[in-house]
Structure to design on (349 residues):
């Protein structure tokens, strides 16, 4: 089942992310010593920069489309203007032909002398002159308008082309960013697996979380996801039935506390791999399991949406995902179906 709020997972193209990577060296230490917990922070930074750049990329695409529409509108207006000018040229030709037929090429003085009614001839000549003048003015005005429209069209086309070139450049960089992010994810996952195998949990990675204050009391544990294994489903991976709701997400995805609470457990090893358990008001607990890294320590207070860790595939897991449980005790065996529990708190999945 796919979340209705699912949006393309981060990394369509990030000039700014590349700049961050180029300007800021990794905090992680080399293979020959030290802790690798900074890989989690690097992945989180990449996700954040990718999200910002994604928005910039989409804004650019929308602006390019607007410029293209504007250029097409200009072209349509130019076509209409040319049709009007052609019609006026035709009218002018008819007037000239009528003048020639009526005047026969004689000078105005000769036409007056030979005319049966000189006054009527003069009135006719003045009328023709006025029409001539009006048509000429209209043509001049139309030509000026055509020149302006052509200039506007050229500017719009040029702007659209520049935007297209910029977006093409961003798309070219996408693979490089994806490669860096994939490498950081792999190293983060490797560190997590090593910690679980050793039975020693890594310390909390204090992620530089964006300062976003939510206006609601409860949120989903991850922002972007596909729902996978559901509560109560069967399978060879579980001794009895599945005790939570799984969210399929890439390694390193920030995992959020669904509500206000206190961290009562941070542990490593066993079927759940690296996990965090948070106590909430009303006697409920939430569990976040198979993590690649934790961002909190036992005893920490957390708010809705605060990052408590990063998704991974530690423990009894066949691929990257978050295993999320709602319990009435901090230990397994007291799980509730988390989907209706969250829905009752205004969080449909």
């Amino acid at each position: 089942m796919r979340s209705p709020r699912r949006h393309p997972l981060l990394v369509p193209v990030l000039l700014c992310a590349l700049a961050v990577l180029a300007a800021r060296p990794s905090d992680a230490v080399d293979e020959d010593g030290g802790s690798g917990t900074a890989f989690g922070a690097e992945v989180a930074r990449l996700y954040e920069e990718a999200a910002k750049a994604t928005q910039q990329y989409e804004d650019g695409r929308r602006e390019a489309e607007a410029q293209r529409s504007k250029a097409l509108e200009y072209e349509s207006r130019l076509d209409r203007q040319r049709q009007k000018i052609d019609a006026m040229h035709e009218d002018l030709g008819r007037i000239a032909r009528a003048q020639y037929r009526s005047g026969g090429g004689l000078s105005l003085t000769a036409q007056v002398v030979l005319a049966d009614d000189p006054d009527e001839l003069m009135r006719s000549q003045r009328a023709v002159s006025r029409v001539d003048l009006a048509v000429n003015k209209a043509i001049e005005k139309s030509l000026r308008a055509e020149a302006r429209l052509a200039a506007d069209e050229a500017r719009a086309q040029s702007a659209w082309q520049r935007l297209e070139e910029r977006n093409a450049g961003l798309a070219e960089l996408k693979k490089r960013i994806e490669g860096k992010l994939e490498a950081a994810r792999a190293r983060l996952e490797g560190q997590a697996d090593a910690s679980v195998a050793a039975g020693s949990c890594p310390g909390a990675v204090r992620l530089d979380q964006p300062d976003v204050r939510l206006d609601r009391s409860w949120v989903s544990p991850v922002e972007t996801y596909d729902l996978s294994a559901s509560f109560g489903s069967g399978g060879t991976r579980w001794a009895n039935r599945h005790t939570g709701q799984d969210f399929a997400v890439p390694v390193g995805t920030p995992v959020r506390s669904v509500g206000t609470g206190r961290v009562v457990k941070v542990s490593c090893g066993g079927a759940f791999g690296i996990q965090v358990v948070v106590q909430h008001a009303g006697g409920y607990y939430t569990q976040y399991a198979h993590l690649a890294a934790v961002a909190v320590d036992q005893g920490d207070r957390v708010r809705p949406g605060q990052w408590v860790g990063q998704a991974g595939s530690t423990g009894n897991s066949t691929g990257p995902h978050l295993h999320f449980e709602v319990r009435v005790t901090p230990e397994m065996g007291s799980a509730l179906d988390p989907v209706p529990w969250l829905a009752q708190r205004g969080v449909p999945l």
